[in-house]
Amino acid sequence: MEGKTKEKCEKSGIIEMWAKKHLLYTEATRHPFILSIRDGSVDLSSFKRWLGQDYVFVREFVPFVASVLIKASKKSDDGNDMEVILGGLASLNDEIAWFKSEASKWDVPLSNTVVHKANQNYRRFLENLMLPEVDYAVAITAFWAIEAVYQESFAHCLEDGSKTPSELQDTCQRWGNEGFGEYCRSLQKIANRCLEKASSDVLTKAEVTFLRVLEHEVEFWNMSHGCA
Ligand SMILES: Cc1ncc(CO)c(N)n1
Predict the structure, then answer these.
(1) Which atom of ligand 1 is nearest to the CA of 151?
(2) Residue partners of 138: CB distance under 8 A and separation at least 6
(3) What is the interface pTM, i.e. ipTM, of the complex?
(4) CB 36: neighbour CB atoms within 10 A?
């Protein structure tokens, strides 16, 4: 990108531009499953299905985040990236403990979970992104998108006027809280910085990867909602 276009991107950020440009971003962050939590009509068996499957997802997400950390340590020219990503790994550690206690609260068994197709497809996608030849800019964009979808979705369930059932407040707080929002903005900043310096080939790959993440997120919500 040259001249004015580049300047414009630097102001609004490439990430923000993509999130605005692609309707899929809104489809992922305003999915019927999330809207059903927000309006209180959620079917609790859907919630329990989501809980069991997301625990499986999170355990697979950890090695992906570790691979992003490795890329940051090799590629990054900004000393702060590593701390942000390490913070993400630490919060995943808390998240795994949270899933265990939440699952026991809801009587959802976490061992022997039948891993749903959407989860398997997501895992395969993450495995490919872990390969050393995947550019740091592409991997960090995917990482941001994965976290941002949950942040925006669950924060929506906590806004004024939402009728989120009290027993689901804790779940919404986990990803919808201001600290998690701040962490997502840090990831977004890193991604924007990498994308601004990226070649057009890497930029294209990152945008396609962003869209694939959104598709996997929609499929994941569909599975929870019982539409897949
Ligand atoms: C499917 C999915 N996407 C994103 C997150 C955020 O960590 C999660 N826990 N699960």
Answers:
(1) 6
(2) 129, 202, 205, 206, 209
(3) 0.98
(4) 17
Report d(CA 215, CA 140) in Å as an integer: 17
**HSE-up of residue 87 (Cα within 13 Å, Cβ side):** 13
Return all residues near 139 (Cβ < 8 A) that are at least 6 apart. 67, 68, 71, 129
Instruction: Give φ, ψ of 226 to 5 degrees.
Output: 80, 25
Pocket of ligand 1 (CB under 6 A): 54, 57-58, 146-147, 149-150, 217, 220
Residues 98-144: pLDDT tens digits?
A: 999 999 999 999 988 899 999 999 999 999 999 999 999 999 999 99
Q: How far is CA 97 from CA 4, 91, 103, 116, 187, in A?
A: 48, 10, 10, 22, 23
Rounded Cα distance, 92 and 88, in Å:
6
Residue of the nearest CA to atom 4 in ligand 1?
Answer: 146
Examine the residue annotation and report whether 217 is marked as an active-site residue of this protein.
yes
